Amino acid sequence: KNEVEQSPQNLTAQEGEFITINCSYSVGISALHWLQQHPGGGIVSLFMLSSGKKKHGRLIATINIQEKHSSLHITASHPRDSAVYICAVKRWGDMRFGAGTRLTVKP
Amino acid sequence: EPEVTQTPSHQVTQMGQEVILRCVPISNHLYFYWYRQILGQKVEFLVSFYNNEISEKSEIFDDQFSVERPDGSNFTLKIRSTKLEDSAMYFCASGGAHYEQYFGPGTRLTVT
Q1: Of the candidates B31, B33, B7, B3, which has an alpha carbon nearest to the alpha carbon of residue B19?
Q2: What residue of B is the nearest CA neighbor of A2?
Q3: Of A55, A70, B58, B108, which residue is most buried, by most CB within 10 angstroms?
Q4: Does B99 touch chain A if contact means CB atoms closer than 8 Å?
Q5: A11 — phi, psi (to 5°)?
Q6: Phi (first) and psi of residue B86, to 5 degrees
Q7: Is A96 helix (H, G, I), strand (E, B) or coil?
Q8: 3-state secondary structure of B86
Q9: Cβ under 8 Å to A: B residues 68-87
Q10: How far apart are CA B93 and CA B100, in angstroms?
């Protein structure tokens, strides 16, 4: 069983739709990161969370430590949001990554 | 805006050769990381570095790998004797006191 599971694996949305990507993990963590990987391969860190909720522009990330679950929401999605979104958990000793959710936003 | 840079962007090497991948972290950052991503697979953590020493490393980071901060600005990853399975994208990241991470653009390593 993977220690970090993301769902869905693939997601296609129409421009303007509200997007939710989920991440569940099975290990104790000190923090959780949401990353965006562009089609060219570059990685951008979106959020680092250890509790609660963070918002940056149209992006919102939440984490529930008790339930070992985090969500990334995108409001008013746009074609430029098309990318792979990766959840990664920081544990003592290393960091474990999910397989990513490939988001395609169509105009 | 400051950014992490990596060189080269693409390195082709023959099996058994040594390679050094270079990274210039953001100047006031304290924490440095290397990750790799084999084509089509997940990103994997290799090593973290703080205060001039390795703070954490994964099971992937065996004796073939080493890291160094030779001059206070560069952060290098050396693979002593490359294998075909070392072919991957290697990402460097750096972070400040709040453990956020900023990623470099990556170096694509191809071992033939």
Answers
A1: B7
A2: B42
A3: A70
A4: yes
A5: -145, 125
A6: -80, -10
A7: strand
A8: helix
A9: none
A10: 10
